[in-house]
């Protein structure tokens, strides 16, 4: 939420109310984004696949790059330029993520993937240079045990793909703030300990190799009803200590995609609300005590538009309700800032 004490980057992603009859809802959406937050991150459309549409026709290891994909920046230009017109910052999400690559990438040789990924980074960062000054460069490279997951980039390019992406991103825009982003890494010596340690060790390795990396994003997709080690929410102290040790590497740390699911918590509606408020408040308040902490992005702001409903189940994980009214969790976040 924007106020004189607000931290530099409290933001949401952008959504469009699809049906025409929702004009007032769209205006309400835009009004809240531009008055309550000071930055946006685009939830889906700035990823490689949505930006670069695979061209029709056969694709194999000899197909020239000009026959692979066609970039269409119009949709993202509109959102980025709208945010900038409101005096907001824009975080670019995300240049390299195995989940949303264009279909053609799977058909390419390792050398071609390397060439295409480099081309994508230069094309995209070049297009937005001067407008988007911070980027999630690589997303979710870690397996639950903290090792590097053998995703398409690992398989095609080897483990060096991560540092290659950061070096290309720095070359594409030497002024850009470059971030590595991941999930279930938020607490030191807490739930998902192996992955959280893997996150720290990955960052430490990049810093020790003088890779141009400036920040780390911890997604914070929390489930208040989580009971096993993979699902439990880390304590505020565990989050504080994770930020602290990453800060000691010389990196900034942000919470990049926060939302707090409550529907699986076996409790009354009142207790669910209190649990959601406490997680938002206490985690953010603890993070703010660390010098390295430089911002928080929510993954959406209204329960009307949350990825949780399409990816998980019906839930109310955010800080505005379905009718764009402030929830108690809004005030919990505001009290923490
Ligand atoms: C999700 C979006 O919310 C969905 O709309 C999209 O279809 C898939 O991606 N971690 C990430 C985000 O880094 O990019 C993902 O966003 C959610 C998990």
Automatic annotation (TrEMBL):
GO biological process, one term: xylan catabolic process
GH10 domain mapped to chain residues: 20-336
Record family assignment: Belongs to the glycosyl hydrolase 10 (cellulase F) family.
Protein name in UniProt: endo-1,4-beta-xylanase
Organism ancestry: Eukaryota, Sar, Stramenopiles, Ochrophyta, Bacillariophyta
Keyword list, A-Z: Carbohydrate metabolism, Glycosidase, Hydrolase, Polysaccharide degradation, Signal, Xylan degradation
GO molecular function per UniProt: endo-1,4-beta-xylanase activity
Catalytic activity, EC: 3.2.1.8
Catalytic activity: Endohydrolysis of (1->4)-beta-D-xylosidic linkages in xylans
